[in-house]
Amino acid sequence: MNIHALLVSRFKQALEALDAGDAPIPVSRSARPEFGEYQFNGAMALAKKLKQKPRDIAEQIVAKVKLDDVAEKLEIAGPGFINIHLSDRWLANQCELAVHDPRLGVAKQPTQTVVVDYSSPNLAKEMHVGHLRTTIIGDSVVKLLEFLGHKVIRQNHMGDWGTQFGMLLAHLNDKLQNNQMAETALSDLEDFYREAKVRFDNETGFADRAREFVVKLQGGDAACLALWDKFIDVSIAHSEEVYDKLNVSLTREHIMGESAYNHDLANVVAELKAKGIAVEDQGAQVVFIPELADKEGNPAVYIVQKSGGGYLYATTDLAAMRYRSSQLNADRTLILTDARQALHFKQTEIVGRKAGFMQPEQSYEHCPFGMMLGSDGKPFKTRTGGTVKLVELLDEAVERAGNLIAQRDNDLSEQELAEVAQKVGIGAVKYADLSKNRTTDYVFNWDTMLSFEGNTAPYLQYAFTRVKSIFRKAGISLAELPVEITLAAPQEHALAVQLLQFEETINVVAREATPHIMCTYLYDVASAFMRFYEACPILREDTPPAVRNSRLALAALVSGTMEQGLALLGIETLEKM
Ligand code: ARG
């Protein structure tokens, strides 16, 4: 059920009847319960256009709009706001419909093909915290889009190509010559990279050999490609370990790394030149972008081929754009990287659209995010200033969660405790990230993310177990529950409205790739449930059976909504903890 969409369509009909069908229809949530749940704010603008008094227009709209099934009353307030008070009967009916619906009343959307480019680590190195946000936010967005019925194509645009592989392959070659297994040699990519770099900088002849490897790699030399394959394979396995721990849905089949576009880069440049978009400048092929000129009016310079003939990150992204448009027929492409790449994607879009690499109606959406900071407000680092490996961070999370849970009052077996620690620890790290507005930096803090109070994973996971325990105590399963809901107390009314805003919330997150909106929503559901539970006893002896069942049905919808909502965020739930 999408209350907002329903209200918009009813107001649209009313405005059409008033010959103002093309006027905007601003319906928003009311700021305070005494103003109802929603508000129509369009009368003022319309009055201006029709040169009438806003309140008169509002009165005409109220007379015309058909909402008697949905709303208890409509009232005109202030200069001409129309406050909408939803009816208890209608809300109760909608909740009843949602309780036994596996989709909780959420409609599917007309299917679009959506490419989501996320995680995309560079395989020369270990995954670090910089790849946490893209991986988690991206995975939540794909789950949500799939839930809405879209065809989602995950693309892990891994950095698996480039000149740095020359030095890595030369180093790996030597290790294998010395009878080392690739898995052992590459057991720590950071160390391996560092060793190769030291040799590159200091060892005579090594840099030349590294360059030879680059040439052979790009020339398609079979032995060199086999070596490269080996390197990539082991490095991907490292990423898979992280994906596994994070419980994200990325697998090998989603990898579409930079190397996959290698064969097409010369074509991209040739096409840009033929269309007069790329021109030669000091030996390089560049595109001048006047739309992004600096203060002096100099156009931005976007290099697609270096003077030595090498291609760049940008060239690959243009090839990827063209592939996604023409081969995958993507209606939307979402790319999740940190905000420092915003200019690159803005430029890529301008250049790619000029070249006709995508259709005008296909969207290209870079979804930038801020950085994860340490308590000192600087980019998150180890105590000694190194980059934090994701694998280690996640292990620490599970360990910390385990210690916390063990200290709490619980009757968990050792095995259960391990499972809880896993789900709470990983959930806490993911939720801490997801719940922050994507575009801002945030400070990573173990204590707040693992707290059982506030907008955290442990709080929501715990709230969920509390709802579950009510059903255990009642000795009744959802399937046997007669669903007849009556909303009497204000807390019941408020909870029902909150629950019925699930679809609206999902739609916003799907449109804007902003999982934090879902986090806030679920936190509000849990809080509304707590207020309801306090004011409206469910299992107390003096609660009449019909009231008890009605409240149980609401509780069932709470647990369904929380479970589904958390699943869309990639956060696991538990029966008890
Ligand atoms: N590998 C890049 C990085 O680690 C991210 C790639 C994002 N996707 C893209 N199509 N450029 O920064």
From TrEMBL:
InterPro entries: aa-tRNA-synth_I_CS (IPR001412), Arg-tRNA-ligase (IPR001278), Arg-tRNA-synth_N (IPR005148), Arg-tRNA-synth_N_sf (IPR036695), ArgRS_core (IPR035684), DALR_anticod-bd (IPR008909), Rossmann-like_a/b/a_fold (IPR014729), tRNAsynth_Ia_anticodon-bd (IPR009080). Its EC number is 6.1.1.19. Residues 460-577 form the DALR anticodon binding domain. Keywords: Aminoacyl-tRNA synthetase, ATP-binding, Cytoplasm, Ligase, Nucleotide-binding, Protein biosynthesis. Residues 5-86 form the Arginyl tRNA synthetase N-terminal domain. A motif ('HIGH' region) lies at residues 121-131. One of its GO terms (biological process) is arginyl-tRNA aminoacylation. One of its GO terms (molecular function) is arginine-tRNA ligase activity. Belongs to the class-I aminoacyl-tRNA synthetase family. This is Arginine--tRNA ligase. It comes from Salinimonas sediminis. The lineage of its organism: Bacteria, Pseudomonadati, Pseudomonadota, Gammaproteobacteria, Alteromonadales. The gene is argS.
